[in-house]
Amino acid sequence: MKSNEGKIRLGIAKCLLGEKVRYDGSQKLDRYLRDTLGQYVEWVPVCPEVETGMPIPREAVRLVGDLDSPRLVGRQSGEDWTDRMQTWGKKRLEQLQKDDLCGYVFKYGSPSSGMARVKVYNDKGMPRHDGRGMWAAMVMDAFPHLPFEDDGRLHDPRLRENFISRVFTLKRWRDIMAGGYSAGKLVEFHTRHKMLIMAHNVELYRAMGKLVAKAGEAGSDELFEDYFNTLFKALSYKHTVKKNVNVLEHAMGYFKKDLTSAEKAELLELFGQYKTGLVPLVVPVTMINHYVRKYDKEYLAKQYYLNPYPAELMLRNQV
Ligand code: SF4
When you count CB atoms within 10 A of the terminal residue's CB, does the N or C end of the chain come out lower? Predict the structure, then answer.
């Protein structure tokens, strides 16, 4: 599913791609991000410390002071880098605006690139663990609707699947809405994402259906933005085995008149095996996809739930 309309661009902490930019001259290569996800996205690497003018190697920095507006200082020297990073950061954000990012992968724990749970030291030298890295905070505040994760959280298969699903959904939204909003585009987008949204949050799925119905009568920009915000709110809810089984059973309903008794029994058995953790989600989804092709179900064939991102990413093999 490499999009014709250009690759998905994601911001990333540069050391995660294996670049030796850390304070001690090392790197923090994440092979999955570079070698697997990297086949489908174009990385926009940023090392805020080096781009701010810090050398390699360098003195490590840390956050000190107020949790909401900490200062970035050298660990031993106390040299204050705050103003330099913020001045550089404002310009860098302008560049990122043009890159049309669909997400950002931060570096766990970094005082510059960490998105959450970063240590902020008080004047007695005691750390709190709920800060944000200085650059990460600037990015998150400037692009509040982007999917964000850090390398640590991405080791959790569910969080990884959810992040990448949101990234691909955002790209599809941007592609379809390029050139301006229209009720027709919204109906098409919503129709193809129905099952995907249902797998995350049924209540919000219903609310979105009402917005789509209204778009035909009086589709203001506000309504489309409302839909977009609700979409990403819905997708931020994790899907669960129970929610997936509901969606799979819903999909099975489309084959009521097609499947033989043996095929129905086999499918239900697979759902049961998925429920008990014997097989991952990819197994029942693959079977549904097989029947979609066999019985030529056009509506299901268009559902992104059944093919939300390239299968080679193997995200549903562990959830
Ligand atoms: S500032 Fe960010 S990108 Fe640079 S080395 Fe530290 S964590 Fe990596």
Answer: N
